[in-house]
Amino acid sequence: xxxxxxxxxxxxxxxAAMGLWGSAALAGxxxxxLRIGGAPPxxxxxxxxxxxxxxxxxxxxxxxxADWRLxxxxxxxxxxxxxxxxxxxxxxxxxxxxxDQEALVEKYSKQGAAEEAAAAARARLDAYEKRIAxxxxxxxxxxxxxxxxxxxxxxxxxxxxxxxxxxxxxxLRVAREDADHAGExxxxxxxxxxxxxxxRAELAAAxxxxxxxxxxxxxxxxxxxxxxxxxxxxxxxxxxxxxxxGRCAFDACGFYIDLGYWxxxxxxxxxxxxxxxxxxxxYWVERPVEVQTRIVEVERVRxxxxxxxxxxxxxxxxxxxxxxxxxxxxxxRRERAESLKVERERFAAERTERAAAAAEHRxxxxxxxxxxxxxxxxxxxxxxxxxxxxxxxxxxxxxxxxxxxxxKAEETAARADARAEETKARAxxKAEETEARGNARAEETKARAxxKAEESKAQxxxxxxxxxxxxxxxxASSSRSGSTSSRGSSxxxxxxxxxxxxxxxSRSGKTTTSANAKDPKDPKDPKxxxxNTSASNDYSH
Length: 541
Prior knowledge:
Layout: H1 2-22, E1 25-27, E2 30-32, H2 52-55, H3 59-112, H4 114-144, H5 148-180, H6 182-245, H7 250-253, H8 270-277, H9 281-286, H10 288-298, H11 302-314, H12 318-327, H13 330-360, H14 368-485, H15 493-499, E3 502-504, E4 511-513, H16 529-540
Antiparallel strand pairs: 1-2, 3-4
Helix pairs in contact: 3-6, 3-11, 3-14, 4-5, 6-8, 6-13, 10-13
């Protein structure tokens, strides 16, 4: 027992020590926790994932449903307006055909009475002729009686009756021409009379189609109004507490909180505020332009943006609706909304007329205003189609003219390029030819100069060789004559000094030698003629 108590005490001490270590022991950002026994702690919570099941619950589910119904109803409303426009255009085309048939029936009905018109014209012509004959007889009688006033009166009656007779003759001619085509006219009249009831039946059917399109559009307008009311109701139920406190922004609740309207304080009665912010469906039916304004401004509310993210993932027709909303800008929606009020008034009038026709057991009447409107729509459609065709033809012609102009410009540019290349080639060839001629002329001039220089050099060499030869021969002869004069007398001094021999000068006591053995000057050269003359004079002296 003592040993067992010792073990229990040791365990208690160990547990106390472990409890101290199990307390929070922090070392900077690192913590340690030691547990003995017990379940492990739960894992930390992960990121919150918002899903459709967790978000679109309660009033948000109503908001999701109302917003989706509104988007689908807007698409259906747009299609109903398109179908109504097409039906009214078809009614106008049929109305134009009916008008044409009625005009043909009236025309051929008048032409069908050509025989009666011819007989009446013949009778009037005979009466005028009788009056003319009677007036002429009265004129002759007045001339016989010298009655000037009677003559003037008779001539006036003659002129008047002749004018009437001419008019009756023209009517008779036209009536006879019509009578000649009486068979053809009767056939056309019968065809027009048979065709007219069928066209009128088509017009009635087209008018029924217009009424069906109007009914569909009215139903789509009501669906839009109900959906926008339900969406505003869902927004009100989500944020009514914040709205009553006057502390909710438009981006959050979808309503503009204006305390100034309430005198600075929100009323205590919620139903008063609810009726002010959430309008009934009839209110939106009567104000289609405000519907479009409300739709555009609520699209930026956070709750609506969030539910539309789920709609894009969950709804099967979300792709078609989103494509429609992107394809139709806000400006076109407002234009259509402005025409909805007029269409609603026309639909109310048509519904009243049909109720009266059903009570009176008759067919609904198509008022002249309806036919005029239908004809105007059809005429406008025809004009638009004709203008589109003309525009297409104009564009085709302009493209064709542009293509021809481009081709002609390219052809002109190609011709200009070819002409420029040809001119350049000719200029290059002419330049090369001129350069070749210049080079040839330069080479020829150089060759001539070289030849002339060589010829001059050769002539100079020949003259120098000839002069050297003469000088050599003259030197040799002078040497022979000098040896002979040295043995002669001193009187021959002039000759010996002219021949190049040594002589003694008596004044200086020196002997001089004249070297005329080699004279480079040619005595035949005219330039040296003076020198030769002076030399001969010296020798003569």
